[in-house]
Design brief:
The complex is a heterodimer of chains A (about 300) and B (about 300). Chain A is built from eight helices and ten strands. Chain A is of the alpha+beta class. In chain A, strand 6, helix 2 and strand 7 form a beta-alpha-beta unit. Chain B is α/β, with parallel strands linked by helices. Helices cover about 40% and strands about 15% of the residues of chain B. Classes of the chains: A alpha+beta (about 300), B alpha/beta (about 300). The structure holds adenosine-5'-triphosphate and magnesium ion.
């Protein structure tokens, strides 16, 4: 019917970025199994998939009671030794039965939630992308816990270079004529609707995680620039406030780094409108200019002082 | 940074003072949040002028969250949701100001279990990722709530925390404030029992005097000389008492003068209340401002 997922993205709670070996250890603690690592074009480490069993109501825009039973797939990842994600999704399918089966049945279908009765995919998609009511399936709560596990690792010093909120991206994917729509709801909540050709594959979840990562980077940079109040305070102070962005964020922008070729057009379409990379680039230029202007001012002040001394 | 606001007695001015401190801290450019852990009477909403949660929220309150009835507590952005027009615009350079209200009719915690402690740990560590400062109104006296946060902070060794003990400037209050810290089942006693180092914990506790009437205050100008002399003598006695109870100058982080506005109404005092409508005293906002800086100023927290 459809796949629904939620990705949470935030700053790793450590003073500096962590090397690959630490990322492995942090993510291994979570599961005790192999951590997958890739280095290019950016360091990326991801925990093995974990399953969470659920038997609960699914959110439906029509408020109709839809019960789903099955499992949710989740994982944690660290990108660039700096950004943490907790990600969960489940494939919602109609149950062949009209009552709950033995757990072995559901465990044999990892990441599938079976629904009873006559649920409509559109109704579920709408219900999920609006704010899901409290007593319904809450993928966000699961993803948040997968992030917590990483953040609570004793290997991290918890002295992050700046404070920043986590962002959540709720997504639904269906099969059909390709289309993508990203909506910003509040400072921290986004929804993404994807219609893709062919069967769902985990590559769609990878795409959503990559979009969530870049959306968070963009938001974080905007927040840091706003906090710096360029023009509203002395240049050196503003530049100092911008420094964490230069040190920790600017090099992480790597659009579609882990996106399957077949899905790359989705990234490209979002990059045309709203124009992710264009906005990112203009913010980066602004930060660099501000820091450069300030460095020049400092240099000329030092030179003046030197000349006066002679 | 986590700041826990506590007092021995009720009605000391703990909520009014701690909310005004976070408000000032936000105006100083920091992202702050206020957690209403006074489960018996969660009235922080009223002080922030958010009438829909004046006595706590019906859904998603902190009490519900700690009981495990909701995955995440509700947040209220004061800059956009306050009923007070003067608060509804975020001043340039100010940080976020977010209230996590208690549950309406939630009631005091009747016990603390393992699950609650881990939810509390989870809440603190998530908030710490995004806020410079989290102020927690722990309610009055020895409570399960105080025990819970003491236990939670043992498990978060890398997150800095501090305690503010609020008291009025009277004999009973001075003795009671000392008792709350050093007495049987007081903060140090319980803290040590649950795994804190008592000396380190001691260094993280400071006192705040509320609604203080200085003998030379403008309010007292009309008094007879005899009355003024008597007040002055009382003040000296209290100073001596405070010193003996280790609640004196060195352990005090600040004091807030008695303010006519706060005497009549529990509210935030804005600069407008001082400068435009002139209903509040400039000394009051200056004292809040000063405390808002001192709570994060390490030199004010060096070992006693
Ligand atoms: N500086 C001050 N000047 C005058 N009145 C004050 C001052 N600070 C607080 N008050 C008043 O004292 C009363 C008690 O304050 P508040 O409600 O903050 O106390 P509390 O310690 O939180 O009480 P409770 O334990 O009941 O929650 C309120 O009416 C408040 O407005
Ligand atoms: Mg109170």
């Amino acid at each position: 019917m459809l796949v629904m997922g939620e990705v949470h993205t935030g700053l790793l709670q450590n003073s500096g970025e962590i090397p690959e070996s630490s990322a492995r250890d942090v993510l291994r603690l979570l599961a005790g199994e192999t951590v997958r690592v890739s280095r290019r074009p950016i360091a990326y480490a991801v925990s093995p998939d974990r399953l969470t069993g659920v038997d609960c109501r699914l959110p439906a825009a029509s408020q109709s009671r839809v019960r789903g039973v099955g499992t949710v797939v989740s994982r944690s990842s660290i990108t660039g030794g700096r950004v943490v994600q907790g990600s969960s999704y489940a494939h919602v399918q109609r149950s062949g039965s009209d009552r709950r089966l033995a757990w072995s049945h559901y465990l044999a279908r990892p990441g599938v939630i079976e629904v009873f009765g006559k649920a409509r995919a559109e109704d579920l998609a709408d219900g999920f992308t609006e704010d899901p009511p409290a007593d319904c399936l809450d993928l966000g709560a699961i993803s948040a816990r997968f992030m917590d596990t990483v953040q609570a690792s004793p290997l991290l010093d918890r002295r992050a270079p700046f404070k920043i909120a986590r962002a959540r991206l709720r997504w639904v994917a269906r099969t059909g004529e390709p289309a993508i729509r990203l909506t910003l709801h509040s400072d921290q909540v986004r929804t993404l609707r994807i219609v893709h050709e062919g069967e769902f594959t985990p590559a769609v979840a990878d795409l959503c995680e990559d979009l969530a990562l870049h959306d968070w980077l963009l938001t974080a940079l905007l927040v840091i620039i706003e906090r710096a109040r360029v023009g509203g305070r002395p240049g050196p102070e503003a530049a100092a406030k911008l420094a964490p962005a230069v040190d920790h964020l600017l090099h992480l922008w790597m659009p579609a780094a882990r996106v399957d070729d077949a899905l790359a057009p989705f990234w490209e379409s979002l990059d045309r409108r709203p124009g992710f990379t264009r906005q990112w680039q203009s913010l980066v230029d602004r930060v660099r200019d501000q820091v450069a202007v300030n460095t020049l001012a400092l240099l000329s002040a030092t030179a003046d002082a030197g000349r006066r001394r002679q | 940074m986590l700041i826990f606001a506590i007092s021995d007695k009720g009605g000391t001015g703990r909520s009014v003072t701690s909310t005004n401190i976070v408000y000032r801290h936000a105006l100083q450019g920091n992202d702050v949040c206020y957690l209403d852990f006074d489960f018996g009477s969660p009235t922080a909403g009223a002080i922030f002028s958010v009438s829909s949660v004046a006595r706590g929220t019906k859904t998603g309150g902190l009490h519900e969250y700690l009981r495990g009835d909701c995955a995440e507590p509700r947040r209220i952005d004061i800059w956009s949701e306050s009923d007070r027009e003067g608060l509804r615009i975020k001043p340039p350079g100010a940080g976020r100001l977010v209230l996590l209200p208690g549950t309406e009719g939630g009631g005091e915690l009747a016990t603390v279990d393992e699950e609650m402690i881990s939810r509390c740990v989870q809440l603190f560590s998530r908030l710490e990722e995004e806020f410079d400062l989290c102020m927690v109104d722990v309610s009055a006296g020895r409570s399960f709530t105080a025990e819970m946060v003491l236990k939670a902070t043992v498990r978060l060794p890398a997150i800095p925390f501090r305690w503010l003990v609020f008291h009025r400037w009277t004999r009973q209050h001075i003795i009671a404030a000392d008792g709350l810290v050093t007495g049987a089942d007081g903060l140090l006693d319980v803290g040590a029992r649950v795994g804190h180092d008592a000396d380190m914990l001691r260094d993280r506790i400071r006192f705040v005097r509320t609604a203080v009437l200085e003998p030379d205050a403008a309010e007292l100008v009309g008094l007879r000389d005899e009355q003024r002399a008597w007040l002055s003598a009382c003040d000296n006695d209290l100073r001596e008492l405070a010193r003996r109870h280790k609640v004196g100058r060195t352990a005090m982080l600040g004091k807030i003068p008695l303010d006519p506005v706060l005497q009549w109404r529990e509210q935030l005092i804005s600069d407008e209340d001082v400068l435009a409508s002139k209903i509040a005293n400039a000394e009051t906002t200056a004292a809040f401002d000063d405390l808002a800086k001192k709570i994060v100023d390490d030199s004010a927290w060096e070992g006693l």
